[in-house]
Protein backbone atom coordinates (compact mmCIF):
# COMPACT_ATOMS: atom_id res chain seq x y z
CA UNK A 1 0.00 0.00 0.00
CA UNK A 2 1.08 3.58 -0.41
CA UNK A 3 0.08 6.80 1.28
CA UNK A 4 -0.30 10.16 -0.46
CA UNK A 5 3.04 11.65 -1.51
CA UNK A 6 3.41 13.83 -4.59
CA UNK A 7 6.28 15.74 -6.21
CA UNK A 8 6.09 19.51 -6.88
CA UNK A 9 6.62 21.19 -10.27
CA UNK A 10 8.92 24.25 -10.36
CA UNK A 11 7.36 26.21 -13.25
CA UNK A 12 4.49 28.55 -12.18
CA UNK A 13 2.66 27.85 -15.42
CA UNK A 14 2.98 24.13 -14.81
CA UNK A 15 1.81 24.65 -11.25
CA UNK A 16 -1.32 26.46 -12.34
CA UNK A 17 -2.12 23.67 -14.76
CA UNK A 18 -1.61 21.03 -12.08
CA UNK A 19 -3.57 22.99 -9.50
CA UNK A 20 -6.36 23.50 -12.01
CA UNK A 21 -6.62 19.81 -12.79
CA UNK A 22 -6.79 19.05 -9.08
CA UNK A 23 -9.40 21.77 -8.71
CA UNK A 24 -11.53 19.99 -11.27
CA UNK A 25 -11.78 17.13 -8.81
CA UNK A 26 -11.28 18.69 -5.42
CA UNK A 27 -13.31 21.83 -5.74
CA UNK A 28 -16.44 20.13 -6.87
CA UNK A 29 -18.55 20.01 -3.80
CA UNK A 30 -22.18 20.45 -5.00
CA UNK A 31 -25.02 22.56 -6.52
CA UNK A 32 -27.11 25.25 -4.85
CA UNK A 33 -27.85 28.91 -5.36
CA UNK A 34 -25.33 31.30 -3.72
CA UNK A 35 -28.01 33.98 -3.53
CA UNK A 36 -29.79 32.23 -0.64
CA UNK A 37 -29.57 34.10 2.62
CA UNK A 38 -28.83 31.92 5.65
CA UNK A 39 -31.73 31.84 8.08
CA UNK A 40 -31.35 32.01 11.85
CA UNK A 41 -31.07 28.55 13.31
CA UNK A 42 -31.50 29.19 16.99
CA UNK A 43 -34.34 26.68 17.31
CA UNK A 44 -32.77 23.98 15.12
CA UNK A 45 -30.94 20.95 16.49
CA UNK A 46 -27.24 20.63 15.71
CA UNK A 47 -26.64 17.41 13.70
CA UNK A 48 -23.77 15.12 14.61
CA UNK A 49 -21.84 12.49 12.71
CA UNK A 50 -22.59 8.87 13.47
CA UNK A 51 -20.30 5.99 12.49
CA UNK A 52 -21.56 2.39 12.49
CA UNK A 53 -18.93 -0.34 12.24
CA UNK A 54 -19.70 -2.72 9.37
CA UNK A 55 -22.11 -0.36 7.61
CA UNK A 56 -21.90 -0.21 3.81
CA UNK A 57 -23.29 2.84 2.00
CA UNK A 58 -23.43 3.84 -1.66
CA UNK A 59 -23.69 7.27 -3.24
CA UNK A 60 -24.63 8.39 -6.72
CA UNK A 61 -22.05 10.90 -7.87
CA UNK A 62 -22.18 13.38 -10.75
CA UNK A 63 -19.56 16.10 -10.97
CA UNK A 64 -18.80 18.59 -13.74
CA UNK A 65 -15.93 21.09 -13.71
CA UNK A 66 -15.20 23.73 -16.34
CA UNK A 67 -11.83 25.44 -16.42
CA UNK A 68 -10.59 28.30 -18.53
CA UNK A 69 -6.80 28.36 -18.44
CA UNK A 70 -4.79 31.37 -19.64
CA UNK A 71 -0.99 31.28 -20.03
CA UNK A 72 1.20 34.19 -21.10
CA UNK A 73 2.23 33.72 -24.72
CA UNK A 74 -0.77 31.58 -25.65
CA UNK A 75 -3.02 32.81 -28.46
CA UNK A 76 -6.21 32.19 -26.53
CA UNK A 77 -7.33 30.70 -23.20
CA UNK A 78 -7.65 26.91 -23.13
CA UNK A 79 -11.05 25.54 -22.14
CA UNK A 80 -11.32 22.24 -20.33
CA UNK A 81 -14.45 20.42 -19.20
CA UNK A 82 -14.30 17.29 -17.08
CA UNK A 83 -17.17 15.14 -15.88
CA UNK A 84 -16.94 12.28 -13.41
CA UNK A 85 -19.89 10.04 -12.59
CA UNK A 86 -20.31 6.70 -10.85
CA UNK A 87 -21.33 5.06 -7.60
CA UNK A 88 -19.11 5.72 -4.59
CA UNK A 89 -19.15 2.82 -2.13
CA UNK A 90 -18.14 3.38 1.49
CA UNK A 91 -17.74 0.76 4.20
CA UNK A 92 -16.95 1.45 7.86
CA UNK A 93 -14.50 -1.15 9.17
CA UNK A 94 -13.67 0.07 12.64
CA UNK A 95 -14.72 2.92 14.91
CA UNK A 96 -12.25 4.09 17.60
CA UNK A 97 -12.50 6.91 20.11
CA UNK A 98 -11.14 9.57 17.75
CA UNK A 99 -10.88 7.89 14.33
CA UNK A 100 -12.73 5.61 11.93
CA UNK A 101 -11.25 3.21 9.35
CA UNK A 102 -13.01 3.22 5.99
CA UNK A 103 -12.92 1.37 2.68
CA UNK A 104 -13.90 3.23 -0.49
CA UNK A 105 -14.47 2.29 -4.10
CA UNK A 106 -15.84 4.18 -7.10
CA UNK A 107 -17.78 1.59 -9.06
CA UNK A 108 -18.64 1.97 -12.74
CA UNK A 109 -16.73 5.25 -13.05
CA UNK A 110 -17.31 7.40 -16.11
CA UNK A 111 -14.65 9.98 -16.92
CA UNK A 112 -14.98 12.40 -19.83
CA UNK A 113 -12.56 15.22 -20.66
CA UNK A 114 -13.94 17.62 -23.29
CA UNK A 115 -16.45 14.93 -24.17
CA UNK A 116 -13.87 12.17 -24.74
CA UNK A 117 -13.85 9.07 -22.52
CA UNK A 118 -10.67 7.90 -20.82
CA UNK A 119 -11.46 4.18 -20.51
CA UNK A 120 -7.97 3.23 -19.31
CA UNK A 121 -8.12 5.67 -16.41
CA UNK A 122 -11.69 4.59 -15.65
CA UNK A 123 -10.49 1.03 -15.12
CA UNK A 124 -7.83 2.16 -12.65
CA UNK A 125 -10.20 4.55 -10.85
CA UNK A 126 -12.44 1.59 -10.02
CA UNK A 127 -9.80 0.12 -7.69
CA UNK A 128 -10.61 -0.12 -3.97
CA UNK A 129 -8.67 2.03 -1.50
CA UNK A 130 -8.65 2.85 2.22
CA UNK A 131 -9.00 6.02 4.31
CA UNK A 132 -8.87 7.20 7.91
CA UNK A 133 -11.30 9.89 9.03
CA UNK A 134 -11.63 11.72 12.31
CA UNK A 135 -14.88 11.17 14.18
CA UNK A 136 -15.74 14.76 13.19
CA UNK A 137 -15.61 13.82 9.47
CA UNK A 138 -12.17 15.25 8.68
CA UNK A 139 -10.14 13.08 6.20
CA UNK A 140 -6.81 12.25 7.85
CA UNK A 141 -5.01 10.05 5.31
CA UNK A 142 -5.55 7.65 2.43
CA UNK A 143 -4.01 4.30 1.43
CA UNK A 144 -3.83 3.17 -2.19
CA UNK A 145 -2.53 -0.01 -3.87
CA UNK A 146 1.21 0.16 -4.46
CA UNK A 147 0.80 -0.26 -8.21
CA UNK A 148 -1.75 2.55 -8.65
CA UNK A 149 -0.45 5.56 -10.62
CA UNK A 150 0.20 8.73 -8.63
CA UNK A 151 -2.19 10.89 -10.64
CA UNK A 152 -5.12 8.49 -10.23
CA UNK A 153 -4.41 8.22 -6.49
CA UNK A 154 -4.44 12.04 -6.27
CA UNK A 155 -7.65 12.21 -8.28
CA UNK A 156 -9.45 9.73 -6.01
CA UNK A 157 -8.20 11.42 -2.84
CA UNK A 158 -9.31 14.86 -4.01
CA UNK A 159 -12.65 13.45 -5.11
CA UNK A 160 -13.30 12.29 -1.54
CA UNK A 161 -11.85 15.46 0.04
CA UNK A 162 -14.27 17.48 -2.06
CA UNK A 163 -17.11 16.14 0.07
CA UNK A 164 -15.52 16.79 3.45
CA UNK A 165 -17.86 18.09 6.09
CA UNK A 166 -16.52 18.84 9.58
CA UNK A 167 -18.90 18.69 12.55
CA UNK A 168 -17.05 19.07 15.89
CA UNK A 169 -18.54 17.41 18.94
CA UNK A 170 -18.80 20.89 20.47
CA UNK A 171 -20.66 22.35 17.47
CA UNK A 172 -23.39 24.90 18.26
CA UNK A 173 -25.59 26.79 15.80
CA UNK A 174 -22.55 27.81 13.76
CA UNK A 175 -18.81 27.13 13.77
CA UNK A 176 -15.64 27.77 11.78
CA UNK A 177 -13.05 25.31 10.50
CA UNK A 178 -9.79 25.29 8.58
CA UNK A 179 -9.65 22.63 5.89
CA UNK A 180 -7.52 21.67 2.91
CA UNK A 181 -7.61 20.00 -0.48
CA UNK A 182 -5.73 20.11 -3.78
CA UNK A 183 -6.45 23.77 -4.56
CA UNK A 184 -5.11 24.90 -1.18
CA UNK A 185 -5.98 25.53 2.46
CA UNK A 186 -9.13 27.43 3.23
CA UNK A 187 -11.37 28.67 6.05
CA UNK A 188 -15.01 27.57 6.10
CA UNK A 189 -18.11 28.69 8.02
CA UNK A 190 -20.87 26.21 8.92
CA UNK A 191 -24.42 27.11 9.92
CA UNK A 192 -27.37 24.94 10.92
CA UNK A 193 -30.37 25.46 8.61
CA UNK A 194 -33.71 23.72 8.22
CA UNK A 195 -32.41 21.33 5.57
CA UNK A 196 -29.32 20.39 7.61
CA UNK A 197 -26.08 22.34 7.27
CA UNK A 198 -24.77 25.09 5.03
CA UNK A 199 -21.02 25.24 4.42
CA UNK A 200 -19.53 28.42 3.01
CA UNK A 201 -15.86 28.84 2.21
CA UNK A 202 -14.83 32.25 3.49
CA UNK A 203 -11.27 32.58 2.16
CA UNK A 204 -8.26 30.66 0.91
CA UNK A 205 -5.34 30.75 3.34
CA UNK A 206 -2.85 29.23 0.92
CA UNK A 207 -2.83 28.28 -2.74
CA UNK A 208 -0.05 25.72 -2.38
CA UNK A 209 -0.91 22.03 -2.76
CA UNK A 210 -1.48 20.19 0.48
CA UNK A 211 1.35 17.69 0.00
CA UNK A 212 4.21 19.54 1.70
CA UNK A 213 5.56 23.10 1.48
CA UNK A 214 7.71 24.68 -1.23
CA UNK A 215 9.14 28.21 -1.58
CA UNK A 216 8.63 27.92 -5.34
CA UNK A 217 4.85 27.96 -4.77
CA UNK A 218 4.60 31.10 -2.65
CA UNK A 219 3.26 33.12 -5.58
CA UNK A 220 0.43 30.66 -6.27
CA UNK A 221 -2.80 32.20 -5.00
CA UNK A 222 -6.33 30.86 -4.98
CA UNK A 223 -9.05 33.53 -4.99
CA UNK A 224 -12.51 32.50 -3.90
CA UNK A 225 -15.36 33.90 -6.00
CA UNK A 226 -18.15 31.86 -4.41
CA UNK A 227 -18.54 28.51 -2.68
CA UNK A 228 -21.65 27.38 -0.85
CA UNK A 229 -22.59 23.79 -0.05
CA UNK A 230 -25.73 22.32 1.42
CA UNK A 231 -25.34 19.16 3.46
CA UNK A 232 -27.79 16.60 4.81
CA UNK A 233 -26.83 14.08 7.50
CA UNK A 234 -28.80 10.93 8.27
CA UNK A 235 -29.05 10.62 12.07
CA UNK A 236 -29.21 6.82 11.72
CA UNK A 237 -26.45 6.23 9.16
CA UNK A 238 -22.72 6.74 8.77
CA UNK A 239 -21.10 9.81 7.18
CA UNK A 240 -23.15 12.23 5.06
CA UNK A 241 -26.45 11.58 3.29
CA UNK A 242 -26.30 14.25 0.58
CA UNK A 243 -24.07 17.16 -0.43
CA UNK A 244 -24.70 19.83 -3.08
CA UNK A 245 -22.50 22.74 -4.10
CA UNK A 246 -21.69 25.37 -6.63
CA UNK A 247 -18.22 26.86 -6.59
CA UNK A 248 -16.08 29.25 -8.59
CA UNK A 249 -12.35 29.83 -8.05
CA UNK A 250 -9.60 31.80 -9.71
CA UNK A 251 -6.04 30.45 -9.34
CA UNK A 252 -3.14 32.76 -10.24
CA UNK A 253 0.59 31.99 -10.49
CA UNK A 254 2.63 35.20 -10.66
CA UNK A 255 2.02 36.89 -13.99
CA UNK A 256 2.41 33.77 -16.12
CA UNK A 257 -0.88 31.99 -15.81
CA UNK A 258 -4.43 32.21 -14.52
CA UNK A 259 -7.24 29.68 -14.34
CA UNK A 260 -10.92 30.13 -13.61
CA UNK A 261 -12.72 27.02 -12.41
CA UNK A 262 -16.47 26.50 -12.06
CA UNK A 263 -17.78 23.30 -10.55
CA UNK A 264 -21.23 21.84 -10.07
CA UNK A 265 -22.00 18.39 -8.73
CA UNK A 266 -24.16 16.26 -6.49
CA UNK A 267 -23.52 13.34 -4.18
CA UNK A 268 -26.54 11.54 -2.75
CA UNK A 269 -27.05 8.22 -1.02
CA UNK A 270 -28.78 5.40 -2.88
CA UNK A 271 -30.19 2.06 -1.77
CA UNK A 272 -27.82 -0.89 -2.17
CA UNK A 273 -29.50 -3.56 -4.27
CA UNK A 274 -26.85 -4.84 -6.69
CA UNK A 275 -25.27 -8.32 -6.48
CA UNK A 276 -21.80 -6.93 -7.05
CA UNK A 277 -21.88 -4.62 -4.05
CA UNK A 278 -20.92 -7.23 -1.46
CA UNK A 279 -18.00 -8.36 -3.56
CA UNK A 280 -16.75 -4.81 -3.96
CA UNK A 281 -17.02 -4.09 -0.26
CA UNK A 282 -15.17 -7.27 0.64
CA UNK A 283 -12.50 -6.31 -1.85
CA UNK A 284 -11.85 -3.16 0.15
CA UNK A 285 -11.56 -5.17 3.35
CA UNK A 286 -8.96 -7.47 1.79
CA UNK A 287 -7.04 -4.47 0.48
CA UNK A 288 -6.90 -2.91 3.94
CA UNK A 289 -5.70 -6.18 5.45
CA UNK A 290 -2.93 -6.31 2.87
CA UNK A 291 -1.96 -2.76 3.81
CA UNK A 292 -1.53 -3.74 7.45
CA UNK A 293 0.77 -6.58 6.48
CA UNK A 294 2.68 -4.44 3.98
CA UNK A 295 2.30 -7.19 1.41
CA UNK A 296 1.39 -5.05 -1.58
CA UNK A 297 4.45 -2.82 -1.22
CA UNK A 298 6.78 -5.81 -0.83
CA UNK A 299 5.34 -7.60 -3.86
CA UNK A 300 5.46 -4.46 -5.97
CA UNK A 301 9.13 -3.86 -5.14
CA UNK A 302 9.98 -7.49 -5.92
CA UNK A 303 8.24 -7.26 -9.28
CA UNK A 304 9.99 -4.01 -10.15
CA UNK A 305 13.40 -5.44 -9.18
CA UNK A 306 12.94 -8.42 -11.52
CA UNK A 307 11.42 -6.54 -14.42
CA UNK A 308 13.45 -5.53 -17.50
CA UNK A 309 11.65 -3.01 -19.72
CA UNK A 310 11.07 -3.70 -23.40
CA UNK A 311 13.67 -2.14 -25.69
CA UNK A 312 12.75 -0.36 -28.95
CA UNK A 313 13.90 -3.53 -30.74
CA UNK A 314 11.57 -5.65 -28.56
CA UNK A 315 8.64 -3.37 -29.38
CA UNK A 316 9.42 -3.46 -33.10
CA UNK A 317 9.66 -7.27 -33.00
CA UNK A 318 6.33 -7.42 -31.16
CA UNK A 319 4.58 -5.33 -33.81
CA UNK A 320 6.08 -7.46 -36.58
CA UNK A 321 4.88 -10.64 -34.88
CA UNK A 322 1.35 -9.27 -34.55
CA UNK A 323 1.41 -8.26 -38.22
CA UNK A 324 2.57 -11.75 -39.21
CA UNK A 325 -0.20 -13.32 -37.14
CA UNK A 326 -2.75 -11.07 -38.87
CA UNK A 327 -1.28 -12.03 -42.26
CA UNK A 328 -1.84 -15.70 -41.37
CA UNK A 329 -5.53 -14.88 -40.98
CA UNK A 330 -5.24 -15.86 -37.33
CA UNK A 331 -4.35 -19.47 -38.14
CA UNK A 332 -0.70 -19.57 -36.99
CA UNK A 333 -0.86 -20.93 -33.45
CA UNK A 334 2.89 -20.63 -32.95
CA UNK A 335 2.73 -16.89 -33.60
CA UNK A 336 -0.21 -16.57 -31.22
CA UNK A 337 1.77 -18.13 -28.39
CA UNK A 338 4.81 -16.02 -29.28
CA UNK A 339 2.71 -12.86 -28.89
CA UNK A 340 1.36 -14.07 -25.55
CA UNK A 341 4.89 -14.82 -24.29
CA UNK A 342 6.10 -11.35 -25.29
CA UNK A 343 3.21 -9.66 -23.47
CA UNK A 344 3.84 -11.83 -20.40
CA UNK A 345 7.53 -10.85 -20.42
CA UNK A 346 6.95 -7.13 -21.13
CA UNK A 347 3.68 -5.98 -19.48
CA UNK A 348 4.04 -2.53 -21.07
CA UNK A 349 3.17 -4.15 -24.41
CA UNK A 350 -0.37 -4.97 -23.23
CA UNK A 351 -1.77 -1.43 -23.70
CA UNK A 352 -0.57 -1.51 -27.33
CA UNK A 353 -2.94 -4.40 -28.01
CA UNK A 354 -6.08 -2.26 -27.83
CA UNK A 355 -4.84 -0.32 -30.85
CA UNK A 356 -3.50 -3.37 -32.68
CA UNK A 357 -6.86 -5.16 -32.47
CA UNK A 358 -8.22 -3.36 -35.54
CA UNK A 359 -11.71 -4.59 -36.37
CA UNK A 360 -11.76 -2.68 -39.67
CA UNK A 361 -8.61 -4.36 -41.02
CA UNK A 362 -8.39 -7.69 -39.22
CA UNK A 363 -10.42 -10.81 -39.77
CA UNK A 364 -12.66 -11.88 -36.93
CA UNK A 365 -10.37 -14.83 -36.20
CA UNK A 366 -7.38 -12.47 -35.81
CA UNK A 367 -9.19 -10.28 -33.28
CA UNK A 368 -10.22 -13.38 -31.35
CA UNK A 369 -6.64 -14.66 -31.25
CA UNK A 370 -5.16 -11.35 -30.10
CA UNK A 371 -7.71 -11.11 -27.29
CA UNK A 372 -6.78 -14.65 -26.29
CA UNK A 373 -3.12 -13.54 -26.11
CA UNK A 374 -4.06 -11.04 -23.39
CA UNK A 375 -5.82 -13.83 -21.50
CA UNK A 376 -2.76 -16.05 -21.73
CA UNK A 377 -0.49 -13.25 -20.44
CA UNK A 378 -2.96 -12.65 -17.63
CA UNK A 379 -1.10 -10.02 -15.58
CA UNK A 380 -2.61 -6.76 -14.33
CA UNK A 381 -1.69 -4.79 -17.43
CA UNK A 382 -3.26 -7.43 -19.68
CA UNK A 383 -6.41 -7.37 -17.53
CA UNK A 384 -6.62 -3.58 -17.81
CA UNK A 385 -6.38 -3.85 -21.62
CA UNK A 386 -9.19 -6.41 -21.64
CA UNK A 387 -11.30 -4.09 -19.48
CA UNK A 388 -10.62 -1.27 -21.95
CA UNK A 389 -11.89 -3.49 -24.78
CA UNK A 390 -14.94 -4.44 -22.73
CA UNK A 391 -15.89 -0.86 -21.93
CA UNK A 392 -15.22 0.59 -25.39
CA UNK A 393 -18.67 1.10 -26.89
CA UNK A 394 -17.17 1.49 -30.36
CA UNK A 395 -16.02 -2.14 -30.29
CA UNK A 396 -18.19 -4.87 -31.74
CA UNK A 397 -20.44 -6.83 -29.42
CA UNK A 398 -18.53 -10.02 -30.29
CA UNK A 399 -15.15 -8.62 -29.20
CA UNK A 400 -16.59 -7.08 -26.02
CA UNK A 401 -17.99 -10.52 -25.15
CA UNK A 402 -14.62 -12.11 -25.99
CA UNK A 403 -12.94 -9.70 -23.59
CA UNK A 404 -15.34 -10.85 -20.86
CA UNK A 405 -14.59 -14.49 -21.60
CA UNK A 406 -10.85 -13.77 -21.53
CA UNK A 407 -11.12 -11.99 -18.16
CA UNK A 408 -12.74 -15.15 -16.82
CA UNK A 409 -9.67 -17.13 -17.80
CA UNK A 410 -6.89 -15.15 -16.07
CA UNK A 411 -5.11 -16.85 -13.19
CA UNK A 412 -4.92 -13.98 -10.68
CA UNK A 413 -7.74 -11.46 -11.16
CA UNK A 414 -7.13 -8.00 -9.69
CA UNK A 415 -9.67 -6.19 -7.54
CA UNK A 416 -10.33 -3.82 -10.44
CA UNK A 417 -11.01 -6.73 -12.81
CA UNK A 418 -13.47 -8.31 -10.38
CA UNK A 419 -15.19 -4.98 -9.89
CA UNK A 420 -15.54 -4.46 -13.65
CA UNK A 421 -16.99 -7.95 -14.10
CA UNK A 422 -19.53 -7.41 -11.33
CA UNK A 423 -20.42 -4.05 -12.86
CA UNK A 424 -21.00 -5.75 -16.22
CA UNK A 425 -23.45 -8.20 -14.59
CA UNK A 426 -25.60 -5.27 -13.46
CA UNK A 427 -26.07 -3.62 -16.86
CA UNK A 428 -29.12 -5.18 -18.50
CA UNK A 429 -30.51 -2.10 -20.24
CA UNK A 430 -30.90 -3.79 -23.65
CA UNK A 431 -30.40 -7.12 -25.40
CA UNK A 432 -26.67 -6.79 -26.07
CA UNK A 433 -26.00 -5.52 -22.55
CA UNK A 434 -27.88 -8.51 -21.14
CA UNK A 435 -25.75 -10.89 -23.21
CA UNK A 436 -22.65 -9.25 -21.76
CA UNK A 437 -24.12 -9.40 -18.26
CA UNK A 438 -24.72 -13.15 -18.57
CA UNK A 439 -21.22 -13.72 -19.97
CA UNK A 440 -19.70 -11.68 -17.13
CA UNK A 441 -21.48 -13.80 -14.52
CA UNK A 442 -20.30 -17.02 -16.15
CA UNK A 443 -16.75 -15.63 -16.23
CA UNK A 444 -16.97 -14.80 -12.53
CA UNK A 445 -17.94 -18.43 -11.92
CA UNK A 446 -14.83 -19.58 -13.82
CA UNK A 447 -12.66 -17.20 -11.81
CA UNK A 448 -14.22 -18.48 -8.59
CA UNK A 449 -12.86 -21.97 -9.22
CA UNK A 450 -9.26 -20.79 -9.61
CA UNK A 451 -9.60 -18.25 -6.78
CA UNK A 452 -10.81 -20.96 -4.41
CA UNK A 453 -7.93 -23.26 -5.36
CA UNK A 454 -5.35 -20.50 -4.85
CA UNK A 455 -7.00 -19.28 -1.62
CA UNK A 456 -7.41 -15.83 -3.15
CA UNK A 457 -7.97 -13.14 -0.52
CA UNK A 458 -11.22 -12.01 -2.18
CA UNK A 459 -12.78 -15.44 -2.57
CA UNK A 460 -15.17 -14.95 0.35
CA UNK A 461 -16.61 -11.92 -1.41
CA UNK A 462 -16.86 -13.87 -4.66
CA UNK A 463 -18.78 -16.65 -2.92
CA UNK A 464 -21.26 -14.16 -1.45
CA UNK A 465 -21.65 -12.43 -4.80
CA UNK A 466 -22.50 -15.66 -6.66
CA UNK A 467 -24.99 -16.62 -3.99
CA UNK A 468 -26.55 -13.17 -4.15
CA UNK A 469 -26.76 -13.36 -7.96
CA UNK A 470 -28.88 -16.51 -7.66
CA UNK A 471 -31.02 -15.05 -4.89
CA UNK A 472 -31.96 -11.95 -6.92
CA UNK A 473 -32.53 -13.76 -10.24
CA UNK A 474 -35.74 -12.38 -11.68
CA UNK A 475 -36.54 -14.94 -14.42
CA UNK A 476 -35.94 -18.56 -15.39
CA UNK A 477 -33.28 -17.45 -17.87
CA UNK A 478 -31.36 -15.45 -15.26
CA UNK A 479 -31.61 -18.33 -12.76
CA UNK A 480 -30.16 -20.69 -15.35
CA UNK A 481 -27.16 -18.37 -15.87
CA UNK A 482 -26.62 -17.97 -12.12
CA UNK A 483 -26.77 -21.75 -11.63
CA UNK A 484 -24.28 -22.30 -14.44
CA UNK A 485 -21.95 -19.70 -12.89
CA UNK A 486 -22.12 -21.46 -9.53
CA UNK A 487 -21.48 -24.77 -11.28
CA UNK A 488 -18.40 -23.21 -12.88
CA UNK A 489 -17.14 -22.33 -9.39
CA UNK A 490 -17.24 -26.01 -8.31
CA UNK A 491 -17.75 -24.76 -4.76
CA UNK A 492 -19.37 -27.45 -2.60
CA UNK A 493 -20.35 -24.81 -0.02
CA UNK A 494 -22.81 -23.39 -2.54
CA UNK A 495 -24.37 -26.76 -3.36
CA UNK A 496 -27.35 -26.50 -0.95
CA UNK A 497 -28.55 -23.43 -2.87
CA UNK A 498 -28.32 -25.37 -6.12
CA UNK A 499 -30.03 -28.50 -4.81
CA UNK A 500 -33.10 -26.43 -3.90
CA UNK A 501 -33.57 -25.72 -7.61
CA UNK A 502 -33.87 -29.41 -8.50
CA UNK A 503 -37.49 -28.95 -7.38
CA UNK A 504 -38.11 -25.75 -9.38
CA UNK A 505 -41.28 -25.45 -11.47
CA UNK A 506 -39.27 -24.74 -14.62
CA UNK A 507 -37.69 -27.70 -16.45
CA UNK A 508 -34.83 -25.54 -17.76
CA UNK A 509 -34.00 -24.44 -14.21
CA UNK A 510 -34.07 -28.06 -12.97
CA UNK A 511 -31.75 -29.09 -15.82
CA UNK A 512 -29.31 -26.26 -15.01
CA UNK A 513 -29.35 -27.24 -11.34
CA UNK A 514 -28.59 -30.87 -12.23
CA UNK A 515 -25.69 -29.78 -14.44
CA UNK A 516 -24.29 -27.55 -11.67
CA UNK A 517 -24.54 -30.36 -9.09
CA UNK A 518 -22.61 -32.67 -11.40
CA UNK A 519 -19.89 -30.03 -11.84
CA UNK A 520 -19.53 -29.67 -8.06
CA UNK A 521 -18.89 -33.43 -7.81
CA UNK A 522 -19.91 -33.93 -4.17
CA UNK A 523 -20.46 -37.46 -2.87
CA UNK A 524 -23.30 -36.20 -0.65
CA UNK A 525 -25.34 -35.16 -3.69
CA UNK A 526 -25.19 -38.57 -5.36
CA UNK A 527 -28.30 -40.05 -3.66
CA UNK A 528 -30.21 -36.78 -4.22
CA UNK A 529 -29.51 -36.86 -7.97
CA UNK A 530 -30.39 -40.56 -8.05
CA UNK A 531 -33.79 -39.93 -6.44
CA UNK A 532 -34.41 -37.00 -8.79
CA UNK A 533 -33.72 -39.23 -11.79
CA UNK A 534 -36.48 -41.60 -10.72
CA UNK A 535 -39.04 -38.88 -10.01
CA UNK A 536 -38.27 -36.40 -12.78
CA UNK A 537 -41.11 -36.06 -15.30
CA UNK A 538 -39.21 -34.21 -18.07
CA UNK A 539 -37.05 -36.26 -20.45
CA UNK A 540 -34.50 -33.49 -21.10
CA UNK A 541 -34.00 -33.00 -17.37
CA UNK A 542 -33.58 -36.77 -16.88
CA UNK A 543 -30.92 -36.67 -19.60
CA UNK A 544 -29.04 -33.92 -17.76
CA UNK A 545 -29.27 -35.76 -14.43
CA UNK A 546 -27.88 -38.94 -16.00
CA UNK A 547 -25.12 -36.95 -17.73
CA UNK A 548 -24.19 -35.35 -14.41
CA UNK A 549 -24.07 -38.74 -12.70
CA UNK A 550 -21.78 -39.95 -15.47
CA UNK A 551 -19.43 -36.97 -15.11
CA UNK A 552 -19.02 -37.31 -11.34
CA UNK A 553 -16.08 -39.12 -9.81
CA UNK A 554 -18.31 -40.62 -7.09
CA UNK A 555 -20.42 -43.73 -7.73
CA UNK A 556 -22.18 -46.36 -5.66
CA UNK A 557 -24.13 -49.59 -6.12
CA UNK A 558 -27.55 -48.08 -5.43
CA UNK A 559 -27.17 -45.44 -8.16
CA UNK A 560 -26.03 -48.08 -10.63
CA UNK A 561 -29.02 -50.32 -9.83
CA UNK A 562 -31.47 -47.41 -10.20
CA UNK A 563 -30.08 -46.38 -13.61
CA UNK A 564 -30.10 -50.03 -14.71
CA UNK A 565 -33.78 -50.29 -13.72
CA UNK A 566 -34.90 -47.01 -15.29
CA UNK A 567 -33.12 -47.34 -18.62
CA UNK A 568 -35.24 -50.32 -19.70
CA UNK A 569 -38.44 -48.26 -19.78
CA UNK A 570 -36.98 -44.84 -20.70
CA UNK A 571 -38.96 -43.44 -23.64
CA UNK A 572 -36.98 -40.24 -24.22
CA UNK A 573 -34.09 -40.82 -26.67
CA UNK A 574 -31.74 -38.27 -25.09
CA UNK A 575 -32.40 -39.53 -21.56
CA UNK A 576 -31.97 -43.16 -22.61
CA UNK A 577 -28.70 -42.34 -24.36
CA UNK A 578 -27.35 -40.54 -21.24
CA UNK A 579 -28.26 -43.54 -19.06
CA UNK A 580 -26.63 -45.94 -21.52
CA UNK A 581 -23.46 -43.83 -21.41
CA UNK A 582 -23.46 -44.02 -17.61
CA UNK A 583 -23.72 -47.82 -17.64
CA UNK A 584 -21.34 -48.37 -20.56
CA UNK A 585 -18.67 -45.99 -19.20
CA UNK A 586 -18.51 -47.90 -15.90
CA UNK A 587 -18.52 -51.52 -17.05
CA UNK A 588 -15.25 -52.17 -15.22
CA UNK A 589 -16.86 -51.17 -11.91
CA UNK A 590 -20.33 -52.61 -12.62
CA UNK A 591 -19.94 -55.58 -15.05
CA UNK A 592 -23.59 -56.54 -14.49
CA UNK A 593 -24.50 -53.71 -16.85
CA UNK A 594 -23.24 -55.77 -19.83
CA UNK A 595 -26.34 -57.95 -19.91
CA UNK A 596 -28.61 -54.91 -19.62
CA UNK A 597 -26.86 -53.19 -22.53
CA UNK A 598 -26.98 -56.30 -24.73
CA UNK A 599 -30.70 -56.62 -24.01
CA UNK A 600 -31.23 -52.97 -24.99
CA UNK A 601 -29.52 -53.56 -28.34
CA UNK A 602 -32.21 -56.04 -29.38
CA UNK A 603 -34.95 -53.40 -29.47
CA UNK A 604 -33.02 -50.11 -29.77
CA UNK A 605 -33.86 -48.04 -32.87
CA UNK A 606 -31.83 -44.91 -32.12
CA UNK A 607 -28.57 -45.23 -34.08
CA UNK A 608 -26.45 -43.10 -31.74
CA UNK A 609 -27.33 -45.30 -28.77
CA UNK A 610 -26.69 -48.52 -30.71
CA UNK A 611 -23.28 -47.29 -31.85
CA UNK A 612 -22.27 -46.32 -28.34
CA UNK A 613 -23.27 -49.66 -26.79
CA UNK A 614 -21.49 -51.59 -29.55
CA UNK A 615 -18.39 -49.48 -29.18
CA UNK A 616 -18.11 -50.10 -25.46
CA UNK A 617 -18.99 -53.80 -25.49
CA UNK A 618 -17.04 -54.78 -28.59
CA UNK A 619 -14.25 -52.21 -28.03
CA UNK A 620 -14.96 -50.32 -31.23
CA UNK A 621 -13.84 -46.68 -30.99
CA UNK A 622 -16.90 -44.44 -31.02
CA UNK A 623 -17.75 -40.94 -29.83
CA UNK A 624 -20.83 -39.47 -28.28
Describe this structure in words.
The protein is α+β, with helices and mostly antiparallel strands. It has 23 helices and 13 strands. The protein has helices at residues 12-26, 119-125, 150-161, 276-293, 295-306, 312-327, 333-345, 350-356, 364-377, 380-391, 397-407, 415-426, 431-453, 459-471, 476-489, 495-500, 507-520, 526-535, 539-551, 557-567, 573-585, 593-603, 607-617; strands spanning 2-3, 56-71, 78-95, 99-113, 116-117, 129-134, 139-144, 174-181, 184-193, 196-206, 220-233, 240-253, 257-270. Strands 1, 2, 3, 4, 5, 6, 7, 8, 9, 10, 11, 12 and 13 form a 13-stranded antiparallel sheet that branches. The radius of gyration is 30 Å and the shape is elongated. Mean pLDDT is 81; it is low at 5-42, 208-218, 273-285 and 287-306.
Q: How confident is the prediction overall: mean pLDDT?
A: 81
Strand residues, percent: 15-25%
- Helix coverage percent: 40-55%
Please tell me how large the radius of gyration is: 30 Å
Number of helices: 23
Our measurement of the CA-to-CA distance between the termini, rounded to an integer number of angstroms, reads 53 Å
Largest sheet: 13 strands, antiparallel
List the uncertain runs.
5-42, 208-218, 273-285, 287-306
SS-based class: alpha+beta
How many beta strands in the DSSP annotation?
Answer: 13
What is the approximate shape? elongated
Q: What is the gist of this entry?
A:
Strands 1, 2, 3, 4, 5, 6, 7, 8, 9, 10, 11, 12 and 13 form a 13-stranded antiparallel sheet that branches. The chain has 624 residues and is α+β, with helices and mostly antiparallel strands.
